[in-house]
């Protein structure tokens, strides 16, 4: 008979719980986020003028330590010092660690939670409260020693969405750190090669000054011989200050570039000693990537900044998913076990034991539009992330196209400059031969040398531009960056946009 009564009572309790669950599920119809969705859409390859054809990995393969291909140990040391000492790079790495902590935090939300606590209070009970005599009006000690556990059942994917958002932010931060590393290395290399350019120009400028000093002395000799006038002497003298000005301007550039390299490598100004290198001693890097004729989405997927923007779209999408789950019930399994007593001496007696277990369900019904406002904010964040991605793609397309155009143009300019230099050097050789044969004067030799020096200066500038543009192209093509997620692509997936 008792078993029958117990079974009937238990059945009633479970039926009531089931009815309550059905009622709560019915009330979940109150969760209404209709009309809230993202307006922005990721740019399509055709819209950005990109090819959808996959680029073979080996056709534009880049070493992540691409600067070593130049064979300049001094450059290698500068880049290594910059990557080790630059504070901006350490800031980027700290951000990576910060967002990775967010992943651990999101993971913890899905795990069972267990806490323990001890509360001990000396209390005077009111005579006019709910507690009856003899406790009412007396001073007593109250103690509770209890362990409490809970486990949130992620039935609607709230915790999973939060975890995915944290992972997206972490991947974006990792890509940002790689982009900062690439930018730092390219800035060091560009500044170093600009410093070498200044050294080459200084050599030409110093030879120009010596040539003008020779010209002035020749004019003085001709003046004494009655072959020139004061006009020619004043003209030769006026050229000397300009030559000295050019040298001082180049020395200023040398100092500024040295300071820039010291700052990039985390060294004190004046503590950086550089040695000039002849251009012939620097390896010519044959970049297969310069043969790329069409920029594709696959190619842009090798840029850290585009990958970071894509991951932020993914993270913002999961934030929207998480905001939607807040409209649904929050279901927890809770349990507690411990001791509670009036009087410290009875706390751990078996008669003071207590425990409990059961579900806890919370459902938002009337929250004044707070959840819809939160979802609108997350949808706006997603719009901003998508538009930022679109801007990153547009900038990347322009960047690669610009560097390809400059690379091809500089190659043509160098071909024409070499032809002009050969002509100037040939004319100089003829002038020297005529002077040695007594058929011309040395002033003609110096004038011919002026044209040669001008071409040598232009050659130094074009060589520096060629290397600088090559470094810029390497940076534009990702600088050897590879996203560790093999499933990633340059463009967000179609389910990124909230409907």
Automatic annotation (TrEMBL):
Keywords assigned by UniProt? Coiled coil, Lipoprotein, Membrane, Palmitate, Signal, Transmembrane, Transmembrane beta strand
Q: Which Gene3D superfamilies match?
A: Outer membrane efflux proteins (OEP)
- Coiled-coil stretches noted in the UniProt entry, renumbered to this chain: 233-267
Q: Could you say which residues form the signal peptide?
A: 1-31
Keyword Lipoprotein assigned to the entry: answer is yes
Is tRNA-binding there in the keyword field?
A: no
PANTHER family cross-referenced by the UniProt entry: MULTIDRUG RESISTANCE OUTER MEMBRANE PROTEIN MDTP-RELATED, OUTER MEMBRANE CATION EFFLUX PROTEIN
Protein name as catalogued: Efflux transporter outer membrane subunit
